[in-house]
Every structure is written in structure tokens, then in C-alpha cells.
Amino acid sequence: MTVVGIGADGWSGLDAQRRAAVEAADIVLGGERHLAFLPESVGAERRALPSPLRDGLRDLAPDLAGKAVVVLASGDPLVAGIATTLMDVFGAVDAIHPAVSSETLARARMSWPAESVTILRDHRDLPRHLSPDNRIIILSANSETPDEVARTLTGSGFGASSMTVFENLGGEEKRTAADAASWHATVGNLNLIALDLRGRTPLASWTAGLPDEAFDHDGQLTKRDVRASALARLAPAPGQLLWDVGAGAGSIGIEWLRAHPTCAAIAFEEREDRAKRIAENAVRLGVGRLRVVTGHAPEALGDGARPDAIFVGGGATDTGVLDACWERLAPDGRLVVHGVTLETERVLADKYAEHGGELTRLHVEHAGPIGTFTGWKPARAIVQWAVRKEAAQYK
Fold this sequence. Notes:
This protein has helices at 16-23, 32-35, 53-64, 82-90, 102-110, 145-155, 224-234, 251-259, 272-284, 321-328, 342-355, and strands spanning 2-6, 27-30, 45-48, 69-74, 95-97, 117-120, 135-139, 162-167, 174-179, 191-196, 241-245, 264-269, 291-294, 309-312, 334-339, 358-362, 365-370, 373-378, 382-388. By secondary structure, the protein is of the alpha/beta class. It has three domains: 2-100, Cobalt-precorrin-4 Transmethylase, domain 1 (3-Layer(aba) Sandwich), CATH 3.40.1010.10; 103-196, Tetrapyrrole methylase, C-terminal domain (Methyltransferase, Cobalt-precorrin-4 Transmethylase, Domain 2), CATH 3.30.950; 212-393, Rossmann fold. Strand 2 (27-30), helix 2 (32-35) and strand 3 form a beta-alpha-beta unit. It is globular and about 80 Å long.
């Protein structure tokens, strides 16, 4: 199996190596648009890529056995492309011949060095990247993406940002430019957006401990200072999974996801109104990939992948919750539990005696008015148990 990148300029844009690979194929797989680029002189059997893709490719495997197969892909097949899927399904491919990716073409049209640009493959991640003078290229999902991006920018105080939308890059190109606040153009499905951000310094940063007002909540919120302490001990890392148990407003899971685009998180919340609010907070803060499970722990935890970190912000005294979390935690995993009641404090003291770790009491006070003067207003003390599960403790 060989993967050949092809641009919007079609067959004429292929070099000799890529043409030779296609001409030697028994079967050529591709999207309808890609297959239409091939001249009649290509004698291979032409097949459209299946949908759904992964299951369809597995079903095709017997027909492809022993054949010279070429898969056509847009641009660079390893840039959010089909080559990754093919390697996952078949284990390997024999060769990959990339074309110039649309991202590269867009940077060239804008004269933007690669090191100055952030590439987003999901426009819903944009709120995480809002910062004055930041340059972003977004691979659009469809013709509606530019409108959605313009609304996000305008609603976040970045309406002055420059939007340049490219259609059919590498072929019969079309460019439309406007600031986000005045964007109203109609574009085709095959488009890419280049953003030069202009706006106020955003409320939300990448550092753990977003302001409490960044979250919609009903009072069930892990507050900023203790949230930062919890996340420091949960230690987000690329590709790792967090469980946020008793998630409330979802602040821990949301901040975990904002740490890196490959982080994953599941928020468990028994109340449906709070679960809905968690999902809305996640979308607004640029991490719509947060998975929200409505149900009571430990029953709602299910039998899925073992998490690398677990935060329990509510329900620590409920029968079986902490034991289930400890059992499911992966080797070298981190567990952080907060409590504000004497009953929870007793439970955490017992767990600390059993498993070790850190047991910390956090006191936070904020200055506020006392009559015509200023004094300290203490918040409720938080008892925090944080522990790392050594491989020897793994079950």
C-alpha cells in the first residue's frame, strides 16, 4: 500500500514519482474528488474510500490482499490525514509520497514563518488560543466554519481580528478577507482560515487557576487557588486521561484539557443541570472534547480505560467511591481528593494512613471591605489528600 498526496491542481501537479506509483497500482482508493483527477490512461480499478472509514477499510482488507494499492490523500497524508488511519488499521504502509499541505500553502500566501503560526484542526479549540497578535490557521470543517469563527472572535472581544479565508488552495484559488466583526461572506466547503488576532488580553490563560468568573456555576466550583494546587498535583501531561469525579462546574477537567491538546478528560456528575453546565463551560473555554457522564459514582465510573489522574471534588464519603478510584487508577497515577467537612476529613486521614501521600489543609483569605476599612475574609478550609500510585500498588 502506497499513500500519494495530491493537491487541488490534480494530476498535473503530481511529480514523476507520485505519477509512477499511481500508474503501477492495481487498485486506487480515494475520495470522489481525488479519483476525478485521474486521467483515463490510469488503468487501475478505482474505488471510493468507504464510510465509516475505519470499519470499511477493515472490510476491504481481503479484496486488497496481494494487490498494489494506492490511496490518494489531500496534501500531506500525515498532516491530520488518512495515512495515520491507514497505519492504525493495517499496521503499516509501504510508502508515503506527500504533496504540499494546505497549511504550508496558506502560510506561503500570508508570508508567515512556520514558527509564528498555530495550526488548529478543530475550530472549537480557538478560545484556548485567543491572545493579541497570535497567528492561527484553522482547517475548516465546512462552509459554516468561518461564520462560527467570526462569532467566537467577536463574542470574545476579538472582533478586530483579521480573517483571511482561502478556498481551493493550490487550484483555482479564491481569497476573501475581512475583520471578524464584519465577516459575512459565503464560501465553499473546502476552505482554510488564517487569523491575525487583535483584541484585549483574554481572561483565560494556559496557567492553572483560571478566574472563578470564567466558569458558569451554581456555587459548586473548585475555587481558583485550591484548583491551582490540585492541578499542580494532578500533573497534566500529553496524552493522559483524567477523571473529574463529582465535577460540579467541570473546572478541574476543563483546566486539565487546556494544558495540552492531546490530554483527555471525563467529568462525572450526577445532576443533569450541572452536567449540561459543564459541557457549556467546556465549549466556551475551548475544550469541547471534554466527555461528560451523568450518573452517581462509583456506578457511573464504568469499565473503560484506566485514568492517569483522578480528582474527587465531591462524594468522597460515599460508600465505595475512593476505593473504586484507587483500584481503577493506572500505575504511576495521581489521585487528589478535596474535603470541607469533618466527615470527609476523617475519611481522608484514614486514606492517608493507608496509602501515604500528602495531606494538606489549605486556608485562603481575600481582602474585602469591613465597613469603611479593609479586612481579611476567610474561605472554608480545604483538606487536600494527594497521592501517587506506585507500580507495586497497582491492581
